[in-house]
Amino acid sequence: MDLELLEQAARRRLDAAFYDYIAGGSEDEETLVDNAAAWSRMRLRPKVLRDVDRVDLSTTALGAPVASPIGVAPMAMQHRACEDGPVATARAAAATGSLLVFGLFGAGSAGGVAEVESTAPRWLQVYVLKDRARSAAAIARSVEEGYAALVLTVDVVRQGNRRRDARNRWVFLREGDEAEEDPNELFDRSLTFDDIAWFRERAGVPLVIKGVMRGDDAAACVDAGAAAVIVSNHGGRQLDGAAATADVLREVVEAVGDRGEVYVDGGIRRGQHVLKALALGARGVMLGRPVMWGLAAGGRLGAQAVLRGFQQELERAMALSGVRSVPEIGPDLLHERG
Ligand SMILES: Cc1cc2nc3c(=O)[nH]c(=O)nc-3n(C[C@H](O)[C@H](O)[C@H](O)COP(=O)(O)O)c2cc1C
């Protein structure tokens, strides 16, 4: 798997402004860069002589079986990356047994995803809008369409200052899309932990909070009834200068303890990065841009190749680290630099 080549192939196919929309982060892109760098900074302590003839990647996500701990992060505008983008991604996730988080916002015509047969679970991601009726409709939809969890993304009370988009005069949803809506006008900025309870009471499925970067916030989320949190800084697209997710994961895992599951995304570009996330205590990881590059370069098969490639890399990294299964991955695999 060569993600650089894949990104280049995607870039050739996409118009420049859309490429920038995907690739970019906010302001000086410090957090965007640090997300990937932080995984690279960590070092592993491989075990030897552990009989790794067979390595099993399978695990569960909120109790549902998945082929591996590698899932797909929610991303808007997949319908512009390739025809039927969200459905293509859903097929790629199904073919690889991967958890799919489908983002409802900016998804073009979002029909069809729920019809894709999959043994792996799908979660529905929504933003909390000022218009609670729309949120209630999303909640109803999550149950009707068989989503196993509802994901609330809470790090977009306003949009980050994305300079590439400003330079390109990129409008979030452009002509030809369903509607032009300014996210800044739609999103509920007054959101607090009490609102989590509002959603939990109405959602017929477990609630997951995405965009948590601190232990105290994570603890408050599970106290308010969330079943899981996703450690995320939105791929460096919101607050520039925010810490890398790899650097705050341990704190969040400790704060949540056994009261919920912890997932992480941001800058995961290799199987060994997944191994490090799991060693820090994550239940699973989610991939953003790599899936988008696969989708743009090769549609469903491109996205599938990315997911398969990550699974193969994780399998090799586990074998080379002397672990045979996901439950065997622990903090002892991490090298603490003195
Ligand atoms: C093009 C693009 C669109 C995104 N749209 C959403 C979205 O609609 N909802 C959401 O919760 N996160 C969204 N994100 C953030 C991703 O879910 C994820 O947090 C991030 O991309 C992970 O980092 P990575 O791209 O470095 O893997 C988006 C990210 C990108 C790159």
Describe the structure in your own words.
- The chain is of the alpha/beta class.
- It has one domain (3-325): Aldolase class I (TIM Barrel), CATH 3.20.20.
- The chain is 42% helix and 14% strand.
- The protein has helices at 3-13, 16-23, 30-41, 78-81, 85-95, 132-144, 163-167, 183-186, 193-202, 215-223, 245-256, 271-279, 289-321, and strands at residues 43-44, 59-61, 64-66, 70-72, 100-103, 122-127, 149-153, 207-212, 228-231, 261-265, 284-287, 334-335.
- The strands form 3 sheets. The protein has an 8-stranded parallel β-sheet with strand order 4-11-10-9-8-7-6-5.
- Helix 5 (85-95) runs parallel beside helix 13 (289-321), helix 10 crosses helix 11 and helix 12 crosses helix 13 (289-321).
- It is globular.
- The protein binds flavin mononucleotide.
- The site of flavin mononucleotide has 24 residues, from helix 13.
